[in-house]
Structure formats: structure tokens, C-alpha cells
Specification:
heterotrimer, A mainly alpha (237), B mainly beta (107), C alpha+beta (142), A: 237 residues, Cytochrome Bc1 Complex, Chain D, domain 2, three-stranded mixed β-sheet, two-stranded antiparallel ribbon, 8% strand, C: 142 residues, alpha+beta, Immunoglobulin-like, three-stranded antiparallel β-sheet, 9 strands, 21% helix, globular, disordered N terminus
């Protein structure tokens, strides 16, 4: 009997554990509407630039990856191991730039890098997130208390997800829509920019752009969202 | 990079039908009320005027102020009268100009 | 903060508020040119609680048959507490079919937004909406 009760409890917790929601589902109807239509989603302006950049340079992205359909599902698989190290989509793009195009890497949050990332991410819209690599390191960072407020990511995004922090609802940390057009920023930004905002929010020293900690955290967040559908480039408050 | 614009104009419409038009354009819409971290004021840089013509005749015009959000988005309506071209023009500070067109076929 | 400055700031707060409400009043007077608007016919759609004041979906519509003889000429939108009272001016006519315009606006604070509409007979109508703006969580210094 006791075993049965225990099994029930485990089953209940499993059901509970599967009640995952994306940031999109936590948004107001009006912000969802802004994302839903490609002529009202401001992130699509960056996609237009990404489309142009895809064809630019010698060789261009298109010279190697002739067909854009080859990019289907790629954004849903990053961060991933590539050339012996874990890298996110932005780093993978820059690796192509330096090694194949013999060009300078784009800076983080530059219009060029965001545009290309958005264009590539769009090809995975509606596809399930499918990162594969081990996210243990990122999980440890997610659960680690830090900063002057001595808080961990988990405290807000697991314990208090769905509650309100000032005017915003705290989402569950499932990054299905990045890069996102954040209403607060009034521009497109990467997941790392968003994570840096969180870290500043708990008065912690934010990890640097492209640092191993950032990429490990990204991988862990994407692994939490495994199987959820990509909705990039999204709109978030 | 040049300004980008996204339009939504129905490709086909019935004569006399009221159609909704949407126009979105990339622009920072710097208010002129902000300061840099060092305290210097950041100059205003906004789109001030928007205009839409239908086969050359103006059907809608707007004047924007700094309270219009970045990447201005606007929707309005017009009656589909005849096949032709809708032209959209934006202009503003620092000699900003941009234009975009869309074709409509009216039956 | 020094206590004297604090007391001064408190004393100034209502004055500043009036100053900004006055700015809106002045901006409206500049458009009305002596006319007195009647309340009604103008409807503003704003979310009652804004997710982020930097980008707020805003719609305004005016009851009108939108015919050659009876239509809306223009709609003017104002705010009470931004650094500047104007939001946007929209010019339309009978070819619009409907008097309905949407855009996205910035709202610095919880406040009232007012829209004035001028009809083809020269009459003015007004509508308003109250909106609660909260500060976004975890904002940044770049």
C-alpha cells in the first residue's frame, strides 16, 4: 500500500514536471498577437537583413549551404559540440565566418549577428528543441546562488514561476523564441543578453558574452525545453 | 544597413470593400529625452511623418512624436477602389526617408 | 538624500504633476484652436495593465459613417506624463471607410491618454483611457 502511494506520488510529480510552458504562453494576448503575425512582429525586420547577409560576401553563406531548407532544425539543436567544444548558434556562425569566409567574427549583439541568427532560427519555427549534449555543468550554474541578493536562477524560474515580479510574470526559463524582440529593449537581442539582465537583476557580476558559463547555461535552458516547439524569432515583454 | 519595412496589403479585394493596411519599419525612434551614461544628452532621431497614397492620391497621413515606439507600426483602413499601387513614405530627423510599395488587384 | 532636499522634492512633486498636465492641456488647445470638444464617439483601446511601457499596443476608433458628407478628418492623441504631451496625429478622410488607427506607443508612467477627433462639420469629440504602467523586472544597464 505504501509502495502504491509512493508510486502515485511519483506519477503525480511526473505529470507536474511535464507542465512546461514557454515564455510565449506567459505573455498577454496583445503581445502574443504582436508575435503571431509576421507583418506585425518587429523581429521579422531583422530576418530581412539576415536574408540579405546570407547572400553577401565571397564565399557567402549561400555558396556553401545552397539551400536554406538545410538550416531547418539547426537552431533547435544548439548549443552543441562542434570542433571539439560546446558552442551556441552565434559562435557557430562566427566559426563559419573566420574559417570558411576568412572574415572577422561579428560582435555579440551586433545587428549582423542578430540578423543572421534570427534568419537561421526562423527555419526551425514549429520544430521541437533537440539539444543533445550533457547539461550537468549548466544545471549547476542554474542552481547556484550568487550576487548581492544571493539568489539562483532556480529560485525565480522554478520556485516562483508564474508569480509576478513588478509588472512581469516570471516565466519558466524555456528559451523557445530566441533571438527575441524584447519590448523593454525595443530591439532584438540574444539569450545571453537576457541572461545578463537576469544576473544584473540579482546584483551578480554577469558572465561575459560567449563565455563557457553562458554557453553551458544556454545548453541547460534548452535541455529543459527539449521537445517544446521553437517560436523564434519571438516577442517578449 | 538601410531601413527595412514590412507591409500587409491584401493582394486582391472586392471593389468597395474596406481593407486593413499594416506598415512596420525599422527605426530607433530616439526620443531626445535620454542621456548617455556619462550624462550627455542623446539627440532626437525619430520618424516624424508617414504618408500612404493609392494610385497617387493621399489616403492616410500621420505625424509621429517621440512617444511612438521604436520600429513604428501603424494600421489603418481604406476602401478598395481600383487596381493599382499603394505607396508608403516615411520621413524624419537627419534627412531620413524611406518608401515601399505594394500592388493591389480590385475586382 | 539630504532631508531639506527631500522636503523640497516632496513640495515640488504636485507642482511638477500639474506642469505636465498643463503641457497636455496646452498641446490640446493648440489643436482645438478655441473649440470645445464633446465627450464621446472616440474610443481608445489600451491594455489596462501594461506589460512594458516602452511598447504599448494602442488603438483608437471614432464612430462615424465615413461618407463624403460626414467623416472624421483627423485624430490627435495626447498623454499626461511623458516628457512631451503629443503621441501622434492621424489624418484620414472618407476613403478610409472606417475611422480606426492602431500603433505602438511609449508610456513613461501610469496615466491618462486622451484622443481628440475632428469631424468634417468641424466639431470636436474626445475620448480617454487610463493605463497602469509598471516597471519591467530585471532591466539592464548595457
Amino acid at each position: 500500500m505504501r509502495v502504491f502511494a509512493l508510486l502515485l506520488a511519483v506519477a503525480a510529480s511526473l505529470v507536474h514536471a511535464d507542465e512546461r510552458r514557454s515564455g510565449y504562453e506567459f505573455m498577454s494576448r496583445s503581445t502574443q498577437a504582436m508575435q503571431d503575425d509576421d507583418t506585425s512582429n518587429p523581429a521579422m525586420l531583422w530576418v530581412l537583413d539576415g536574408e540579405a547577409l546570407w547572400q553577401a560576401g565571397k564565399p557567402s553563406c549561400a555558396s556553401c549551404h545552397s539551400n536554406m531548407s538545410g538550416m531547418k532544425g539547426v537552431a533547435a539543436r544548439y548549443p552543441a559540440m562542434s570542433s571539439g567544444r560546446l558552442m551556441n548558434l552565434e559562435q557557430r556562425i562566427n566559426l563559419c565566418r573566420t574559417e570558411k569566409q576568412h572574415a572577422k567574427p561579428y560582435a555579440y549583439e551586433s545587428k549582423e549577428l542578430l540578423s543572421l541568427t534570427a534568419y537561421i532560427a526562423l527555419q526551425s519555427r514549429g520544430m521541437p528543441i533537440a539539444v543533445k549534449d550533457d547539461a550537468t555543468k549548466g544545471k549547476a550554474l542554474y542552481e547556484q546562488r550568487q550576487g548581492q541578493l544571493n539568489m539562483s536562477c532556480a529560485q525565480c524560474h522554478d520556485q516562483y514561476a508564474g508569480h509576478r515580479l513588478a509588472g512581469s510574470t516570471i516565466p519558466q526559463a524555456h528559451p523557445t523564441g530566441y533571438p527575441v524582440y524584447r519590448l523593454e529593449w525595443q530591439t532584438l537581442g540574444s539569450l545571453q543578453r537576457r541572461l545578463r539582465n537576469c544576473l544584473v537583476g540579482i546584483r551578480a557580476e554577469p558572465y561575459g558574452y560567449g563565455s563557457p558559463e553562458m554557453v553551458e547555461l544556454e545548453l541547460y535552458l534548452m535541455s529543459r525545453a527539449r521537445g517544446m516547439k521553437m517560436d523564434a524569432p519571438g516577442v517578449r515583454p | 544597413m538601410a531601413a527595412r519595412a514590412l507591409l500587409r496589403v491584401p493582394q486582391r479585394a472586392k471593389r468597395g470593400e474596406v481593407i486593413e493596411i499594416r506598415a512596420l519599419i525599422s527605426h530607433i525612434m530616439e526620443t531626445g529625452f535620454r542621456h548617455s551614461e556619462r550624462g550627455a544628452s542623446i539627440a532626437r532621431d525619430i520618424i516624424t511623418d508617414f504618408r500612404c497614397t493609392y494610385n497617387g492620391a493621399e489616403i492616410f497621413r500621420a505625424r509621429f512624436y517621440p512617444a511612438i515606439a521604436a520600429n513604428p507600426f501603424i494600421t489603418f483602413t481604406t476602401i478598395a477602389t481600383e487596381s493599382g499601387t499603394l505607396r508608403f513614405e516615411w520621413s524624419g530627423d537627419n534627412e531620413f526617408t524611406a518608401s515601399e510599395s505594394a500592388a493591389i488587384s480590385v475586382e | 538624500m539630504n532631508r531639506r532636499i527631500f522636503v523640497l522634492a516632496l513640495a515640488l512633486t504636485p507642482w511638477m504633476r500639474t506642469a505636465r498636465a498643463d503641457a497636455m492641456h496646452d498641446a490640446m488647445s493648440a489643436v482645438l484652436k478655441g473649440a470645445t470638444p464633446r465627450e464621446g464617439r472616440v474610443k481608445i483601446d489600451l491594455p489596462p495593465l501594461v506589460e512594458n511601457g516602452n511598447t504599448v499596443p494602442f488603438s483608437v476608433s471614432v464612430e462615424s459613417p465615413m461618407t463624403e458628407r460626414d467623416h472624421v478628418r483627423s485624430i490627435h492623441v495626447f498623454n499626461e506624463k511623458n516628457p512631451q504631451p503629443n503621441i501622434g496625429d492621424f489624418f484620414l478622410g472618407p476613403r478610409a471607410g472606417r475611422a480606426a488607427v492602431s500603433t505602438r506607443i511609449r508610456l513613461a508612467d501610469t496615466q491618462t491618454v486622451v484622443a481628440l477627433a475632428q469631424m468634417s462639420d468641424g466639431s470636436w469629440w474626445s475620448g480617454s483611457a487610463n493605463v497602469v504602467v509598471t516597471i519591467a523586472a530585471c532591466t539592464e544597464t548595457v
